[in-house]
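hey can u check if this looks right to u? its 203 residues, i copy pasted from the old doc so theres a chance i mangled smth
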Amino acid sequence: MLHLDHLAVSAATLDDGAAWVERALGVPLAGGGKHPHMGTHNRLLGLGDLYLEVIAIDPSAASPAHPRWFDLDHFQGAPRLTNWICRTADLDAALAAAPAATGTATDLARGDHRWRFAVPASGKLPFDDCFPALIQWQGDLHPARTLRDHGIRLARLEITHPDAPALQRALTGLSDPRVQVQLGPYRSLRATFDTPQGTRVLT
């Protein structure tokens, strides 16, 4: 089984990404941390049962000898919602059922958090990054449980792709009414949130 775990907003710089999300959703982001294995860093926002991360290349970190996750080595332009991440209790089994090139299980850490993550060899996930990254948390520590609750909740995550039927079949292990896969001429992610200030959207 897969469960929606968090959303990722990529940015050219962490400050730019954090400012963009804060303007869009009307609340400040919390400090995240660094990912030495990937040469990236992030900031976080609690969304109740899940969370949102803004992620960017860390200019103070050494460049890894492998592609960074979320295809950040090729990121250009304004901050935007680029990826979604699902958690599983058995990453090896989830990878066996996932499309080819979803990634290799890799042990990672940030501060006290420990997890296994499916890292794609190219840095890019199947279905033009519309297939979710897969994560298996180690232990009971999870960011969503420690982040401040601003009363923001994900209402809907719309995933549009030209091969939506195949993507939907690849997601048979996920049952979450908030996730909606739809047919369209190009790939896109759109997240709609209920906030104390009304409905807000990130794309």
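The CA atoms of residues 22 and 28 lie 6 Å apart.
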